[in-house]
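This section describes the prediction task in plain terms. A model, or a person checking by hand, is given the sequence of a single protein chain and must write out its three-dimensional structure as a string of tokens. No templates, partner chains or ligands are provided. The sample shown here is typical of the held-out split.
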Amino acid sequence: MSRGEAVPFAFIAEADRFRSNVTPPPRARRTFRQVAGSALVGLTIVAGLVGSVLVGLPALSADQDSPRNENPAAAEHR
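The expected answer:
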């Protein structure tokens, strides 16, 4: 079957060119409570991420003393 032949379901081939004149209904405006609630959720997520970084920062620092070096006298008696 070559591409030049007619399609048995021509309406499917023409569906790409069809444009509807029906407009969707307008979106409902968000209330102050909805906006404040979504802002509060976003702020909570950001605060949690920042807090977890601040709590984990001492564990990531490279200049911390190793706990094995706290008592060097115990290493001399081996």
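For orientation: The chain has a mean pLDDT of 78.
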